[in-house]
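Reopening this ticket.

The earlier resolution said the output was attached, but the attachment link was broken on my side. Pasting everything inline this time so it's all in one place.
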Amino acid sequence: MDQQQKKRLIWQLPFLALLIVGTILIIRQQRNPSYQHNTGAIFGTTYSITYQYADDLHEEIQARLQEVDMALSMFNENSIISKINRGERTIPENLEGNMFVEVYELAEQISEDTNGAFDITVAPLVNAWGFGFKHNEMPTQAQVDSILQFVGYKKIAYFKKGSSRGISKKDPRVMLDCSAIAKGYGVDVVAQLLKEKGITNYLVEIGGEVATRGISEKRLPWKIGVVKPTDDPLVEGNELQTVLNITDKCMATSGNYRNFYYKGGKKYAHTIDPKTGHPVQHNILSATVLTDHCARADAYATSFMVMGLDKAKEVLERNPDLMAYLIYDDNGHNAVWYSPSLEKKINKK
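Inline output:
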């Protein structure tokens, strides 16, 4: 082989290497398992789960969600939270019991951090204002004051003595309601199952709360829309305010535009301030929170609806893992404030 042929071969080697690598990637891509799609109902809402895996995991997913239901559902008379609300104190040493304790302790931490804006004892007030089990006449101030006597996260405590553990109440009328954190926790539980299977591409959605990892079937990062709030009951609310790139993050949204009613020309929203006992009346319409765990995002989204814009910003400053996209009413027009760290996740196309 002469010198010229050697030079030509040296120049061709990188191209041959690229060709080989490209061929391997194409073959590997073709052998990758397809995406599975599972849907169903849980916690009084629906779920939709997409993941790249060779097998359909729907039965295992349903089993995990039922375990969360047995821990946290107020609508399941056999759940741990229902038993506690009926006066039982003991929490069993089983998976559902561990789930309940994990959620309870997280709720307590967030209650402390938000100065009580997040409170899992608020259920009696929610019911009194017609957003829970019953929709009776609007409560009087005297009735609200009466209920406030047994509402407050400091009126309950978790105890562990020897092999026994449970919840003690300062007032037997205290009722626990984890609906503002349970969906997010369910998302985390399913996401953990998928991680245990080694799955690196998935989207888990329960009632609008989301966890994502990797890429979608289109080989693109996951993108989730934030719905534009509207007070018009005739508008379905499908118009998007923005689209966020949330790959490898969790996202939860709370909004007073989703559940409200008018009476006497006044709007009553489902978010209740645990301190005043009344539906919140500030101008935030929607709070979307992103972080690494959906239960945390879920609870803080609710907290921000209670706290209002200025106090929500204070919480965000001391919790750098949280990012928020807040939509509020500015003299009849939707305005937006979002965390500076969220800038790069906003899809501006």
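Reporter confirms the inline version is readable. The radius of gyration is 24 Å. The mean pLDDT is 86.
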